[in-house]
Amino acid sequence: MFSFPSYAATQWKTGNFTTYRFSKVDFTMYDLIMVPRCNNSHWVLLVAQPKTKTVNVYDSLGGDNKVFYELFRKFMSVRSNVMSDGMDQWHFLSTAQNRQTDGTSCGIFTLMKAECLVKNLPSLTLGQSHVAFFRNYVRGRLLASGDRHTYLCNTLQCIDPRGQLKWLNCDVCWRWVHEKCIGTGLDTEGFRCDICNVQYS
Questions:
Q1: Which residues 6+ apart lie within 8 Å of 174 measured at CB?
Q2: Sorting pLDDT into bands at 50, 70 and 90, what band is 186?
Q3: Phi, psi of 170, rounded to the nearest 5 degrees
Q4: Does the predicted model carry a pTM greater than 0.70?
Q5: For residue range 106-149, what is the model confidence (pLDDT) as tens digits?
Q6: What family does this belong to (predicted)?
Q7: Quick check: 10 and 74 in contact, CB under 8 A?
Q8: Torsions phi, psi of 118, nearest 5?
Q9: What is the 3-state secondary structure (H, E, C) of the chain?
């Protein structure tokens, strides 16, 4: 699965289709591409399947999300002009969806839908009756992985430097690395970490 930052959809709404192009990512390698979006305080999840070139938008309030789909299609078309990866033609699918019955669970519904799809479970598996449980599940996951007791970076050969550090963010996977660990004199514009260099080269 490849997940876009939700800010990408915000950029598309303003007509900006080039800020998050992910030019070093081969979308054909993924089964799912997920794009969460918060619009008017309501979360929805766009899920694209590169192998079938189909798109679903999961909305726990059942809204009309054709505009979101069209923004995604426009982004992929603009990106394909540069990438020539054949990812410019997509088809919208409409599927049955669980509905929320309160006014505060759209974000949890988005996360539950993503969890089901990633784990290959039927998309209707989790619904309103699972919201409280899933909130606790997410809280536990965040607390378990959120406390970091190390200064090590995500590069394969971190030298554990101390003092004033300059960090670099991979343009592809968003891993953080110390500049000291990858050497000096590298082009930090469009930086790609060693893991992505191995995976995408």
A1: none
A2: low
A3: -65, 135
A4: yes
A5: 999 999 999 999 999 988 899 999 999 999 998 888 777 665 56
A6: Belongs to the peptidase C48 family.
A7: no
A8: -65, -35
A9: CEECCHHHHHHHHCCCCCCCCCCCCCHHHCCCEEEEEEECCEEEEEEEECCCCEEEEECCCCCCCHHHHHHHHHHHHHHHHHHCCCCCCCEECCCCCCCCCCCCCHHHHHHHHHHHHHCCCCCCCCCHHHHHHHHHHHHHHHHHHHCCCCCCCCCCCCCCCCCCCCEEECCCCCCEEEHHHHCCCCCCCCCCCHHHHHHHC
* Residue located via tokens 């191995």: 198
**One-letter amino acid for residue 16 of the chain:** N
